[in-house]
Amino acid sequence: MRHHSVSAVPDAPALVAENLVVNYGSVRALTGLSLTVHTGICAIAGMNGSGKSTFFKSVMGMVPLTEGSIEICGHDSLTARKSGLVGYVPQSEDIDHHFPLSVEDVVMMGRYCFMGPLRRARSADRAAVDNALDVVGLSKLRDRPIGALSGGQRKRAFVARAVAQGARLMLLDEPFAGVDYTSQEVIIELLIDLAKSDTAMLVTTHDLESIHTFADEVALLNREIVGRGSPEEVLTKDRLVKAFTDGGMND
């Protein structure tokens, strides 16, 4: 029996995160993060340990919230995730490269939320996978083991998984880490094209130089949002120093 899925509520923000608090034991990883994203590409910039990955994992239900609420495309987080409205592209180190899956297998995972318990692919699922592989330029590598791909190709395969599921919100955790300059350019071009097709994207990065090339806006993170605006407004030396030495700034 096919899972009953919901669609994005028209005109609803892609993400509404309100007062997110996450604790790891006695360590407070997020201290009251609030962020609303409608469309386009929002870069999440912060130092190591600033809570970037924790933020994404809280949206994906991978770490529990101590406080706060998350709404995705007008629905609660669990409903949105079960309906494939949010896609997640993890950091490379979170992926088992030795797992015997082909590129096509990985992309087909994006269709699981539309399949029954036996996960039998229908023609619509195969067509969605074909389209997603074409979008990211990996059609010729569909039968290759995911572990045999380069870092940049693996990132594109996981983007394709989110494309195949029809995600309206895409979370990309350090997509440029461990990839060469050419692969970074390919991924940036891909993200910009996807943003034009009404997909909202959150992209974490510590590479501040690259943000100007792809992001519509930037949110500075230091366990909570400590600054937000266009790259030109936010990525100034004074604001960055203030954000990451004082632990906050007033906008």
Largest sheet entry: 6 strands, mixed
Structural Rg = 18 Å
Return the structural class. Answer: alpha/beta
Beta-strand segment tally: 10
List the uncertain runs.
Answer: none
Strand order of the largest sheet: 6-7-8-3-9-10
Q: Would you list the SSEs in sequence order as H and E?
A: EEEHEEHEHHHEHEHEEHH
Count of discrete alpha- or pi-helical segments spanning 4 or more residues: 9
**N-C termini distance:** 50 Å
Helix content: 25-40%
Percentage of β-strand residues: 15-25%
Average per-residue pLDDT, rounded, comes to 89
Shape: globular
Provide structural commentary:
The protein is α/β, with parallel strands linked by helices and 251 residues long. 32% of the residues lie in helices and 24% in strands. It contains 9 helices and 10 strands. The chain has helices spanning 52-59, 77-82, 103-108, 123-136, 151-164, 181-196, 208-211, 231-234, 237-245; strands spanning 15-24, 27-37, 41-45, 67-72, 75-76, 86-89, 169-173, 200-205, 217-221, 225-229. Helix 4 (123-136) packs antiparallel against helix 5. The longest helix is centred in the last third of the chain and has 16 residues, at 181-196. It starts with 14 loop residues before the first strand and ends in a 6-residue tail after the last helix. The relative contact order is 0.18.
